[in-house]
Amino acid sequence: MKIGGKKPGGIGTDNVVKKAGNSGNIKKNEATGGGVSSGDNVDISSMARQMNRAKVLLESVPDVRTEKVVKLKTDIEHGNYHVDAGKVAERMIERAVRDALHKK
Question: Among residues 20, 24, 33, which one has the least CA distance to residue 12?
Answer without folding.
Answer: 33
